[in-house]
């Protein structure tokens, strides 16, 4: 999936970049609007969903790392939180049920700091409240 520009803001780095998540790969790729590759980030695990808030905080849902079928061994599944500008990861919300085959496939956050993980297996939306 390629994220389109959002009002020309820093959500796309400097307004001319897009971020791409490619299923089946453990990376996030950054491109210029014309398709030139800028960078590849692997520090967000094996992303299946992304959300970038108004403060350029990037939330990455990783539902497949270290799963029962052996994808991305050595990594913990969960929601990684970091900078959409420089890629620095600052937090991990671990998958609450690492034994099943799916965790959060999608992710979003609200203005109050709550984070939401869309879980495919249990067909639910899980809310994480900042303490």
Summarize the structure.
This protein has strands at residues 17-21, 28-32, 37-41, 49-52, 57-62, 78-83, 89-94, 104-109, 115-119, 124-128. The chain has 131 residues and is mostly beta strands.
Give an account of the 3D structure.
- The chain has a single domain, classed as YVTN repeat-like/Quinoprotein amine dehydrogenase (Methylamine Dehydrogenase, Chain H, 7 Propeller), CATH 2.130.10.10.
- Strand 1 and strand 2 (28-32) form a beta hairpin.
- The strands form three sheets. It has a four-stranded antiparallel β-sheet with strand order 4-5-6-7, with no helix packed on it.
- Residues 1-20 have low confidence and may be disordered.
- It is globular and about 40 Å long.
- It is 0% helix and 40% strand.
- The chain is built from no helices and ten strands.
- It has 131 residues and is mainly beta.
Strand order of the largest sheet: 4-5-6-7
Q: Count up the domains.
A: 1
Profile the largest sheet: 4 strands, antiparallel
Top CATH class: Mainly Beta
> Considering the protein shown, what is the CATH homologous superfamily?
YVTN repeat-like/Quinoprotein amine dehydrogenase
SSE pattern, N- to C-terminal: EEEEEEEEEE
Radius of gyration: 14 Å
- Compute the average pLDDT: 78
Structural class: mainly beta
N/C terminus separation = 32 Å
Number of strands: 10
Do you know the CATH topology? Answer: Methylamine Dehydrogenase, Chain H
**How many DSSP H or I helices?**
0
The assigned CATH architecture is 7 Propeller
Helix fraction bin: under 10%
Could you list the spans in which at least 5 consecutive residues all have pLDDT below 50?
A: 1-20
């Amino acid at each position: 999936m390629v994220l389109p520009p959002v009002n020309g803001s820093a959500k796309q780095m400097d307004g001319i970049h897009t971020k791409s998540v490619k299923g089946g790969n453990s990376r996030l790729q950054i491109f210029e609007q014309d398709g030139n590759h800028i960078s590849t980030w692997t520090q967000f695990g094996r992303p299946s969903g992304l959300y970038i808030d108004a403060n350029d905080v990037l939330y990455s849902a990783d539902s497949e790392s270290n799963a029962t079928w052996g994808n991305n061994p050595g990594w913990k599944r969960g929601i990684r939180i970091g900078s959409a500008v420089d890629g620095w990861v600052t937090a991990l919300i671990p998958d609450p049920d690492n034994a099943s085959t799916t965790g959060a496939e999608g992710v979003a956050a609200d203005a109050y700091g709550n984070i939401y993980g869309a879980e495919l297996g249990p067909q639910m939306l899980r809310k994480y409240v900042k303490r």
